[in-house]
Write a structure and sequence with these properties.
Two copies of one chain form a homodimer. By secondary structure, chain A is an alpha/beta fold. Helices cover about 35% and strands about 25% of the residues of chain A. In chain A, the strands form three sheets. Chain A has a five-stranded mixed beta sheet with strand order 3-2-1-4-8. Chain A has a five-stranded mixed beta sheet with strand order 11-10-9-12-13. The first copy, chain A, has a three-stranded antiparallel beta sheet with strand order 5-6-7, covered by helices on one side. In chain A, α1 packs across α2, α3 packs across α10 and α8 crosses α9. The longest helix of chain A is centred in the last third of the chain and has 25 residues. Chain A is globular, with a radius of gyration of 20 Å.
Chain lengths: ~300, ~300
C-alpha cells in the first residue's frame, strides 16, 4: 500500500510517496499558493502519482504549519499561509478524491521520526526541534498526542525560569527562550560583546554569527565554551522536565542545533541523566539525534495512515 | 459487575466495593502490614466481600504508594512500606484467587477523579495534588498515562525556576518546591518572621501555622495576602506549563491546599487563563477542585478495570 505525505510550509509544499515500511518511492515539491494550499497539494499529488506510474494511493497525510484541528480537518489559523478556518481536508479530498488526514508540521515530524527515524524501535517518543523556536511532538504508544482540539504539545512554551527571558508567547522564561537556535545566537552575540578578545569576536561579525559559532570555537575559546555550557544547562533542564512528565523511552533532537551531533549530545546526556527523577536504573531515557532531517515531515504525514 | 478498589498507604490500607457506575457498595480499612501488604489486602478483601453479602467480584485494583511497575504488577520500591521488588499482583491473586491490576497511589487518585469525580465529563484530564509534595496523574482518552515502566507523570518534578529552591528530588526550582503545602507553610513562616506586626504572627506560633494560615488571613492582613499571591503565581506557572504540554480539557486540584476552594480557584484561574498558549478561545482548559477527597484512590483503583 502507498501513501502520500505532504509538508506545507510558508514558501514550499513538499510531498513524497511512501510505502508501509517507510520506503520513499517518489518525491517532489511546488511553491505554496497563499490562501489556498489545497491547490498546491492537488498539483503536487497529480505529479507524484504520475512520477510513480499511477500507483494506487490509499490516502494523503498532511503536516501543515499553523494551528491545526486534526479532528475537524481544519486549519484554524496559519498566518504565514494566509489561512483562517480553512477546511483543508475537505478541499484536498474534493480535488483528489482521496481520504485525507492532517496534523501540524511539528507533530508530523515527530511521527515521522517515531515511525521511520531515530525512534523506530520505541513505542513512546518525543521529538524536540531546536530551530527558530523550540517545537516538537509527542508520540505515545505509536500515536500522536495532540491534546484537546490539537492545541497541546507546545513543549517550547513550558517555563523553566520564572521571570526570565521574554518569549514570543508573552510569558517569561519559556524553554524556547533559552533552547532555540535564536536564543543560542542571541547568547553568542552577547558573549562576543562581553569579551572582545574572544576568537568568536575576531572571526565573526554580528551578521555572520550563527547557531554554529559557539560550538565551532568551544575547544579553543573560553567564552565560546561558556556559551555552549550555558545553552546545554538550559536544554538539559527542559528535557529532564519532559522526561519526568512523560518518561518516554527516547527523546530525539532535531532542528539546526542538532547538527552539532556528539558535540552537543555527550555533555547534554551527562547533565540529563544526572537530573532524571529516580535515576537511569529502572527506566532509562535515551537521548538521540533525529535521523530524517527535513524529510521527517513528509514521512510523518504519510504515517498518519499508519498510527497503531 | 463489582470491583474492589484498594488504596495502600504507610499506616492504613483502605478498600471499597464499587460498581461500574461508581456506586460505593461497601467500605473498610485495616492497618498496613509492613513488608507484606498482600496480607493486609487479603484480609480487607475478605471483609469487604462478607460486608456486601458475598457479591461476585470481577477484580481487585490497587493504588499503592511508592515506585510501581504496573505492567509487571510489581512494587519496585516503597520505602515507607518496607518493600522492594515485591510481586504485589501475584501475591494478592494467590491469596484471593482474583485478577489484580496495580498502579501508584497518585495515578489511582487521578483515574478516580477522571472516571467518577470532577473529571467525569472529560476525556483528557490531569489531577494535581497539593499536599506534602505535588503529585498527580494524567488521564488521556480515559486511560492512565504512566510512561515507560510506569515511571512518568512526575509532574511535581518539573523545574519552573531554574536554580531556585531545593527540591526533595535533588534539583532546584521544581514545581513541588513552590506549590506543595510544605512550600506554602515554609513561605508563610518566612513572611511571619519578616513582619512581626502581621496578624499571622500574633495569632499563630511556628507550631500551629499550616497551609490554611495565609489563606485564612488574606482579607485582613497584607503579609498573608502577599504569601497567597506568591503561592498562586507559582502554581499558575506550573499549571500553564502542564496545560501547554497536554492541553487537557480539565485540570483538577486535590490535596490539602485545594480545600481553599474558590478562594484559591478564582485568582488562580485569572492568572492561568491569561498565560495559556493561544488563549482560551479555541481550546479552553477548565480548572476545578477535585471532588472525591481521600476516596479518589479507592475509586480509581477499582476503575483500573474500567479504563476505556
Amino acid at each position: 500500500m502507498f501513501y502520500i505525505g505532504i509538508d506545507v510550509g510558508g514558501t514550499t509544499v513538499k510531498g513524497a510517496v511512501i510505502d508501509e515500511s517507510g520506503g520513499m518511492i517518489a518525491e517532489d515539491s511546488v511553491p505554496t499558493v497563499m490562501g489556498d494550499v489545497a491547490q498546491s497539494i492537488a498539483t503536487l499529488t497529480r505529479g507524484l502519482i504520475a512520477k510513480c506510474g499511477g500507483a494506487q494511493i490509499a490516502g494523503i497525510g498532511i503536516g501543515c504549519a499553523g494551528m491545526i484541528d486534526s479532528r475537524e480537518g481544519k486549519v484554524v489559523f496559519a498566518g504565514n499561509l494566509d489561512l483562517k478556518d480553512y477546511p483543508l481536508s475537505e478541499r484536498v479530498t474534493r480535488e483528489t478524491g482521496l481520504p485525507v488526514k492532517i496534523t501540524n508540521d511539528a507533530n508530523a515530524a515527530a511521527l515521522g521520526e517515531a515511525k521511520f527515524g531515530a525512534g523506530k524501535h520505541f513505542k513512546d517518543s518525543i521529538l524536540v526541534t531546536l530551530g527558530t523556536g523550540v517545537g516538537g511532538g509527542i508520540v505515545i504508544d505509536g500515536k500522536l498526542y495532540e491534546g484537546f482540539k490539537s492545541a497541546g504539545a507546545e513543549i517550547g512554551h513550558m517555563v523553566i525560569e520564572r521571570g526570565g527571558d521574554l518569549c514570543t508567547c508573552g510569558r517569561r522564561g519559556c524553554f524556547e527562550a533559552y533552547s532555540s537556535a535564536t536564543a543560542l545566537i542571541r547568547r553568542t552575540k552577547w558573549a562576543m560583546e562581553e569579551d572582545a578578545g574572544s576568537k568568536m569576536w575576531t572571526s565573526c561579525t554580528s551578521d555572520t554569527v550563527s547557531g554554529k559559532t559557539a560550538f565551532g570555537f568551544m575547544d579553543s575559546d573560553y567564552s565560546a565554551k561558556q556559551v555552549v555550557d550555558w545553552y546545554i544547562d538550559r536544554l538539559a533542564c527542559g528535557l529532564v522536565n519532559l522526561a519526568n512528565i512523560f518518561r518516554p523511552q527516547v527523546i530525539m533532537l532535531g532542528g539546526g542545533v542538532s547538527n552539532e551531533g556528539e558535540r552537543l549530545l555527550v555533555p547534554l546526556r551527562q547533565k540529563f541523566e544526572k537530573q532524571l527523577f529516580g535515576g537511569t536504573g529502572h527506566a532509562p531515557v535515551a537521548l538521540k539525534i533525529a535521523s530524517l532531517g527535513n524529510r521527517a515531515g513528509v514521512y510523518g504525514a504519510a504515517a498518519l495512515f499508519l498510527e497503531d
